[in-house]
Amino acid sequence: MTPDPAPRATHREDPGLSELLGGRAGAVDASVPVVAFVAGWFVAGWAGSAYPINWGAGAAIVAGAGVAVWRLASGRKPRAVLFGLAGVVLAAGVALATGRASDFFLVQIVSNAGSALVWAISIVVRWPLLGVIVGGVLGQRTRWRRDPDLLRGYQRASWAWVAQYVVRLAVFLPLWAADQVVLLGLARTVLSPALVALSVLVSWPLLRTALPDDHPGIRHPR
């Protein structure tokens, strides 16, 4: 009798990208100062304040500081927390400097444009950022790049992230140009987390379908 062929490796050991990337808490953290800014600006303007942007900026910074303290107390890495707070302060500073409430979102818009460009370039030069991030989380450093199947999979999946930044810009830029502060706040609070979740959801099948049946999975580059 001939022995049964060895079973093919499966992807069952692979963690989902949502498990590796997380992001739900980060999306909530980033939304709190935005809601605070729009609420402070709107209420101050409705109450007849001569400086509604000041109230909005102050509310955003206070909310950002509150989130930072909470996350530090919860054991979050200080660098990530302080970076997030710095972004809020910068956005508030831009709005105060220009005197235009919608410019609170200008930092986010520029960041999205830069992110789309960087992600696209990373794919073209064969250093897809999704592979860099996931490989770093898994402790693989650059070993995944020596696996042509994984490299191709990360390149394919990274396009989903380029697309979500492009969609953000397509929504945010017209609202910013029209000075629609409330709609910008709503889009930033609802659309951005939804697009991140969708990117994670779409990236996983794009990555896995690039791997042959006998591939040992993303934890084990060949």
Automatic annotation (TrEMBL):
Transmembrane stretches, start-end: 27-47, 53-73, 80-97, 117-138, 159-178, 190-207
Record keywords, A-Z: Membrane, Transmembrane, Transmembrane helix
Record lineage: Bacteria, Bacillati, Actinomycetota, Actinomycetes, Pseudonocardiales
Keyword Transmembrane attached: yes
Protein name: DUF3159 domain-containing protein
Pfam family, one: DUF3159
